[in-house]
Specification:
Layout: H1 2-26, E1 30-34, E2 40-45, E3 50-55, H2 63-96
Length: 107
């Protein structure tokens, strides 16, 4: 039994290391999102760090319209990045979890 516990602890530490490596890798995964008319383009990492924003000069004439575009497009980009992030980290966590009956957290 003690050996099983040590094995599980080792596997959990290995999984934690893989999760940290995955988080670092997700800093290099870029997500692009654009408004429907492509007047605003946003690039962020899968860890939801904004890397670039391109704004069509036409949008600079109307502050309220630009704000609306930013809110809508940023929210869509963050949603995409979150899905990628959760899928990647969930896969690593599920792979490394010991098989404990009743603990099917990552189905």
């Amino acid at each position: 039994m003690f050996g099983d516990m040590m094995n599980m602890m080792g596997k959990l530490k290995e999984t934690q290391k893989k999760v940290e490596e995955t988080k670092k890798r997700l800093d290099t995964v870029l997500i692009d999102e654009a408004s429907n008319d492509s007047k605003l383009k946003i690039t962020l990492t899968a860890n939801r760090t904004i890397k670039a924003i391109e704004i069509d000069t036409e949008l600079l004439q109307d502050k309220e319209q630009l704000e609306d575009y930013l809110i809508i497009t940023l929210n869509k980009a963050i949603e995409k990045a979150t899905k990628v992030n959760e899928a990647e980290l969930g896969a690593v966590a599920k792979e490394g979890m010991p098989n404990i009956p009743g603990m099917d957290l990552f189905k």
